[in-house]
Amino acid sequence: MTKVLDDKPFEKNKKTDPNPITTDSDQHIVIIGNGISGVTTARFIRKLSNYKITIISGETEHFFSRTALMYIYMGHMKYEHTKPYEDWFWEKNRIDLVFEYVNKVNTKDKTLVLNNKETINYDKLVIACGSTPNKFGWPGQDLEAVQGMYTRQDLDGMEKYSEGLEQAVIVGGGLIGIEMAEMFHSRNIPVTFLVREKSYWSNVLPSEESAMINRHILESHIDLQLGTELKEILSDKNGKARAVITSEGDEISCQFVGLTAGVRPNIQFLKDSENCEVELGRGVLVNEYLETNVPDVYAIGDCAQLQNPSEGRRPIEAIWYTGRMMGETVAYNICGKKIAYKPRLWFNSAKFFEIEYQVYGDVQAHPPENHASVYWEHADGRKSIRIVFDRESKAVLGFNLMGVRYRHEVCEKWILDQTTIEDVLPNLGLANFDPEFFKEYEQEIISIYNKKYNANVQFKRRRSLTGAIQFLKGKFS
Amino acid sequence: MKSIKLLGISIFLLALGIFTIGVTLSTHTLNDQALASVTKEHHRMMIKEQAGEVFNKEYGSNLAFVAALKPILKKTKEALDKASGVDPDNGVWNATTLPEGVAEWDYRMSDYDIKSYLFSLTKKSSGGLLPNNAWLFFFLTFILGTVGALIYMSPDLKTIPGIKHNGIYHSPSQSGLRPVWQLALVAGVLIGTLVVVLQNGAMFWLIGTIVITSLIVGIIYMWEKRERKKPLALPSSSTKNGWIGILLGTYLITFYIVLYFYPYYLTNWVLLVEPIKMAISGGAEASEWFLYGFLYCVAMLVMGVRMIIKYRHNRYQLIRTGSVLFFQLSFAFIIPEILGRFNNPALDLKTAWPLDYSFFYDYRLEQLSSNSNYFLGMNVGTMLLVWGLILSFIFIPLFTYIYGKRWYCSWVCGCGGLAETLGDPFRQQSDKSLRAWRVERFVIHGVMVLAIVMSFMVWYTYQYGEAQILGFNSYDVRSWYGFMIGSMFAGIVGTGFYPMMGNRAWCRFGCPLAAILGLVQRFKSRFRITTNGGQCISCGNCSTYCEMGIDVRAYAQRGQDIVRSSCVGCGVCSAVCPRGVLRLENSSEDINERTTQVRTIHISMDDVKIL
Fold it and tell me: What helix, strand, coil percent values describe chain A, rounded to 5?
């Protein structure tokens, strides 16, 4: 059942699938971008075909894990450690790498013009060029030492400006902003963190969880300023940031400003290409097969904008997991097996300083009328479990975990099967994925539920792999 | 916080400095009192006779004393040979002039005698600053060093619990060495080994070792040639060299070489711990091995405290660290001392064959079978023999089936215990490349086969009195194994190379017991590391901090559960994962298909069955 090509663990020496969908090796597939989306595409095309594959990127020569950029700065890892594949992997799997930016896309002649003026012809093109940080026209946003944290070059910038840095200001209360704060914190550089909302990430996290992260940011000695926006960045005489002025009118002296108010698709080079007929919205517009309006041109990952996203999903989802799924889907489509992009249940994860975060299913910051939830929080204020369910049908809709790990597949199965909360709670231990010997809190959640809803649910199953496997195999319901 | 750390490290370095210099802080006089440690009277008389003006002369340090003593012992040996009637022309002994009732082997002085006399005479002849103030120096070294280390760690308690790896790759002690430097150091040790082997005239074994090594290198080269354009390329590395790491590695390597081959330079250190040995054992004197055992326990305890502070949020790590500390202090240290006190063989009760490669050696079997002590009505020698056999042949496969290799390697084993405490700061240095994995599989299984064959030969010789087996002399095989694997590999490479090859270099590449445990784990065990659905972000923390050099991420990013024969189940991959992806667990529910499931795929495509 399992066939693998990125063959490190099993060392299968086969270069391709023995029965590829197509054996046509004349086709040249060109992928713009070597992030998780583009690289997943290339790997799957190689599994499925003998096409010639080229990945173009001006950022780095080899694929690395963008999500690990912060760990390089913090000294947890070296750049080498963030590469999921060793450098020889690419030649072994006949994936050509071009280390250069693409300046122009010509869909009429099917050619690309690189920054070094070379041209590359393609038969099929996959645009997987990712995102770029949002800038909202703040005065001073293009000064020196003002940047986001998205690329390898951004990391180099942070490294460069960290020398002698006495105060950093970070603007924007999302995931990258808190990562940046943690990065500077790891080098004992004071950080002021400006968040427009009244509470951190309050458009995504329910209020208790959001409040927990507020507390955690403060106890990590970050100067968190909620409900505060950036008004202006002031320049010194060399054109470098020297201070910011906030919406409160305060002037904060600083030598670095991080702009992390979200990202948008990185499609300026497509707009600048005279002969690019690809239809653009906020991102590259694609249908459910990830095809653009131009034949043989596809777009995936952060830069793709779905014209008809699945119910409950956004047209642009700039996260690692969706990029990976799209990469796989588009590979099938390119290799002649038409498959629609239908992401399964929503899931995501992050880490806020020391607090891990996982979410499965539909957990909303401002829950609609029919959403009810049971919420437990540990006395230390750094762990919580929230289970969202439908007020009427009692079917579970989502899990939100802080500082506790839950099993993806178990949670997913409960939600997809529309299991009721009172059927889930007795078996809740099956979802627990914390390491062995860790304390289990499922009984406490049940007591909270029983109290709140005047129910009498009894705890049945503790954390156990055997139980989880039996459950997933349908051995008990 | 910073100043407390500075204070702690200064105290520690002061203690380490005193400890190191302490080796030389003694005077030595060869007198009758010192000679009393030589138990054989004719040896004693002859040494005294040969000593000449060295006798009763005071030397200012043990270096000078050993330099003076060595030629005397050599002359003594020659004089004894002559007196016993050995023909000086051909070295053949014709029993003519031995005193009444003394055998030839007893009368003459062996190389082993010389080594032990060097040690005991140096120790017994000492006086001066350190030997006369042993308690003071014990305080200035062990106690002060421990206190300094604890002060250094204490500010970490004030931080919010969680993984603290900030700055590791900016640190001059933990950031590792460039591959070229690693190669240079490995080559240095190899050349040193070759010199020792050559000096001992063991050409055959030298050639054998070189042939096997070249064979492995050749196979891997051919293998890589098929898949890479540059099969000889070194792995890339972008950071500067960790110079403290180089110093630390050199210190450790030097320590092991002196301990194994020149222990008489360490007599002052032995004197520091001798009062403790006497108290535990009821008056027996300390050897260099007691010193080593004591140092081992202190290092594990202090660095165990560090481990406990670092992982105070992680109960798996706390319990596991407690376990290795318990087994080291009791099974490996206190219990053997108590056994010894009651005239039993002082065996480490947790080291199983074939890690304990001398288990089937003639003198060990002899020692057990000649034991006449009884405990609870059972012969202690027999009990120890049976315990060793049960440990190796029943517990090893049984517990590995139930819990995986980890029950031994990271919960019980002493080498593992040191690696998990003293070695924890260096775990990230293990090589994660596919090449390293290939080398690992050849070498560790090679050592395993060697250990088994060697043990069998030794046992055969003991049982049937025949040393020559299939053209090999079992005594030669055994001394080669003891030197190359037992001393060089397990000690010098295993621990001395912590800052360069990570804390598990021996466990990963050399330990024959780990190889056997690994085979059980790989083929029949309930253990695996589960990956949590599609949550992996390929960040690489798990692989980086895997001390066994497993590329954990390669499995995690495609949602495949991990069963690798080398995994010792330390649980750190799970601890460092920022997304809650990895969990060590056991189940017999799916024991034959532990690794077949692949989970990262989360698009609906019911008709696609590729993955």
Answer: 25, 25, 45
